[in-house]
Design goal:
Blueprint: H1 2-15, H2 18-21, E1 25-26, H3 35-49, H4 61-67, H5 79-95, E2 97-98, E3 112-118, H6 132-147, E4 151-157, E5 161-168, H7 171-180, H8 196-204, E6 212-217, H9 222-232, E7 238-243, H10 260-272, E8 277-279, H11 285-294, H12 312-323
Parallel strand pairs: 3-4, 3-6, 6-7, 7-8
Antiparallel strand pairs: 1-2, 4-5
Amino acid sequence: MRWIVFDLLADSINSLALHQLADFHFIRPWWLLAIIPMYLFMRFVIKSEESLSQWKAHMSDTMIYHLAIKEQQKRRFTPKKLFMLFAVIITLVMAGPTWQQQPTPFFTDESVLIIGLDVSATMNKSDVQPSRLLRAKQKINQILEKRGDAKTALIAFSGSAHVAMPITQDKEMIRHFLDVLDSSMMPTTDKVPQSVIPQAKALLTQVKAPSSILLLTDQTNQIAITGFGNLLADTPHQLVVWAIGENPDSGLENSTGLSSSELSSLTQLAQAGNGNMVPFTHNSDDVETVLRSLNNTLQNVDDNSLPWFDAGYLLLFLLIPLQALWFRKGWTMQW
């Protein structure tokens, strides 16, 4: 039982990340006013335990010194001190410390992720094995797995853009169409990223919540930068650009990956669309970065309407081992 309690407390402490400290508050802060009379009461108890002070007017200091119980003979943990510790913990429990809101089944995420996958000829390069296109598909599958049943749409583009899957919550259906996408299926193999704009605009008219366009590509142009900027200007939506290709800062010799100028253009594209550019990594760091960017537009419901998790109840577990001390022989409390 003791280890279960400690595990619960440890999990609770670990969940209190730095970004959640700003949300830390008490649900019932007026209970903290009980600390004032509690402090006065503690002072009274301490004074009452100094029983020899009343004899100073009748005895010499030498006599009092020899009659007094030495400091090391006093019990460090007395029933009165235990009672005061109980009172402090109970006060904190009643105040209701909290730092996170509780999820509720009555509201669902209404934001939409529109994935734009580049299937042009340059995506068949093998600077990232086995190819840029296959690695992009792998990354998309990881995103789908992390997002669960969130609403998602899929657009494939090269010289033209086509909606491979309209907005759906069926990630397995998206995976099915994603697996078969190939450059050979497209009418042309050149790259026109601005062709995604009309398709994305049509999909965004179907959503009411702030949403994201995730563009996986290796190149862009000024027309696309201007077009996406006009599409997303004065909207709550964002464009996240995932640069698929070996990073020029990877340190690999004779790298045939993305150039610094290509990364700079992709960064300009993302900034024009109110978002950010995420470079490709061989581990899952880029996936986590993309997910954090997408979470910027998650909208379940007005935050103020979600209930706060009352963590005060967890403090009650601290009272269990302390309560066992009352069963010690001779432990009574007298005022």
